[in-house]
Amino acid sequence: MTDFADAIDQVQHGHDLPAEQTSDLIDLMLQGNADEKQVSDLLLALRDKGEAVSELVGAARAMRRHMTRIPHGHGTLLDTCGTGGSHSGTFNISTAIAIVAAAAGVPVAKHGNRKATSLTGSADVLEELGVPIESEPDAVAQRLNEQGICFCFAVKLHPAMRHVVGIRRKLGVKTLFNLLGPLCNPAGATHQLLGTSSCDAQTKIADAISQLGTVRSFVVHGRDGQDEVSLDGYTDAIDVTTGGQSQQRWVPEDFGLAPTTMESLSAANPAQSAQIIREIFDGHSSPRADTVLAGTAAALLLVGEVDSLRDGVSKARETIQSGAAKAKLQELVAS
Q: Which residues hold anthranilate 1 (predicted)?
């Protein structure tokens, strides 16, 4: 049996845990066979050392074994779930991007949860928008197959996380589990637009995805610290495919959009975030709308719907101005 005390000691002395050992430890946590102090000490030790790629891969494999899977018939499936933890205080950009991308014809399984280290989680804003988030797995699968979009609520589809959710809240800091969410989509997303809150996390997540496998993913980090495609300065993107990795750097001019400051994207709570998304879907131009256009453009480029970021912006803008994004949100609300 995996020894927590030994693992904690290894990590506190700066040693990375192998994937298999980490997987066994996470299994014990998710089975409820580890006490609170053990879990807390290990998570904090990993955080202090810096989570290694082997630890991310092992933990993700364990999480995937315990999650409730969502079956579907889509050959291409996008997720825009990021790591969070940037403390940027922005509205729920990736959630808006998911809806616009789905309205543009890309099947989407948006993975997410309630807020942990942010002001608003994707579940919080969708609930505020009127979208049912507590659906049973069969209903989630039906929504994905019939509407081309669903929300994979982590609380419902990762039931074993109940054994650690209280500990995470008490710790109140970003831990290994914040990095695992995007690596454990219950519908098995083939493509991911995955935002990270630091350059270090970006590199590690990209390396983990290379081992865990997707068809193609963009792992992004904004110069301003956003875990999103940013129009404030530049966005670094690691393009992860089955053939390897390549680096890209996007600036506002690549999208044909004006620079935008992070301060202009703020939202104090889920209600304000929801109102911002409604205004964007009503066709109001703003720096917030431009940020959603940029992120959606990256998503469309990722799945091969467009050949350039500028073409992606044009398609995203048309999707919003035609009312298709608003209609897709209304479909979700009515489902």
A: 82, 113
CATH 1.20.970.10 for the 4-66 domain, yes or no = yes
Which residues are annotated as part of the binding site for Mg(2+)? 94, 227-228
Give binding residues for anthranilate as ranges.
82, 113, 168
Angle, CA of 6, 11 and 16, to the nearest 5°: 110
Q: At what angle do helices 19-30 and 4-12 cross, to 10 degrees?
A: 130
112: part of which helix (H) or strand (E)? strand 108-112
Identity of residue 112: G
- Write out the binding residues: 82, 85-86, 90, 92-95, 110-118, 122, 168, 227-228
Q: Which residues are annotated as a binding site for 5-phospho-alpha-D-ribose 1-diphosphate?
A: 82, 85-86, 90, 92-95, 110-118, 122
Determine which helix (DSSP H) or strand (DSSP E) holds 56, and give its type and residue range: helix 53-66
Q: Is the pTM of this model over 0.85?
A: yes
What tens digit of pLDDT does each residue of 264-285 get? 999 989 999 999 999 999 999 9
- Fold of the domain spanning 78-334: Pyrimidine Nucleoside Phosphorylase; Chain A, domain 2 (3.40.1030)
pLDDT, tens digit (0-9, with 9 covering 90-100), for 142-186: 999 999 999 999 999 999 999 998 898 899 888 898 899 899 999
